[in-house]
Amino acid sequence: MADDELDAIRRQRMAELQAKHGNASDNQQGEEAKQRETDMRNSILAQVLDQSARARLSNLALVKPEKANAVENYLIQMARFGKLGGKISESGLIEILEKVSQQTEKKMTVTFNRRRVMDSDDEDDY
């Protein structure tokens, strides 16, 4: 009986180890896919932007990562469709940033709701 129990425990432990190893390989494949995508994006942006424009875009990514990501996606789409003629300079990137800012600009309005307080002093006649 001890051998049967020992075999059952060994099989259970082996299944646990295989499950852990399988999950680790899935995570590793996901990380590798993310790394390949990041490398591809960087290579496309290196082909499309000159040094000063890349520096400006990386500075923007530090401050506003969502806006930088939107600009990167826009540049990658333009490059894939062949709508970019040569490398984009810093001034060209600034124009693109202005366009993206205008499209994503949020208009805010401030309204004041003042309370109407009944003041007993108005009614008193001294």
Automatic annotation (TrEMBL):
This protein's UniProt keywords: Acetylation, Apoptosis, Phosphoprotein
Cellular component aspect of the GO annotation: cytosol; nucleus
Pfam families xrefs: dsDNA_bind (PF01984)
Homology family: Belongs to the PDCD5 family.
Residue ranges, annotated region (Disordered): 18-39
Gene coding for it: PDCD5
UniProt KW Acetylation keyword: yes
Listed GO biological process terms: apoptotic process
SUPFAM superfamilies named among the record's database cross-references: Double-stranded DNA-binding domain (SSF46950)
Function of the protein: May function in the process of apoptosis.
Protein name: Programmed cell death protein 5
Keyword Plastid: no
Cross-referenced Gene3D superfamilies: PDCD5-like (1.10.8.140)
The species this protein was found in: Anabas testudineus (Climbing perch)
GO MF annotation, one: DNA binding
PANTHER family found in the cross-reference section: PROGRAMMED CELL DEATH PROTEIN 5
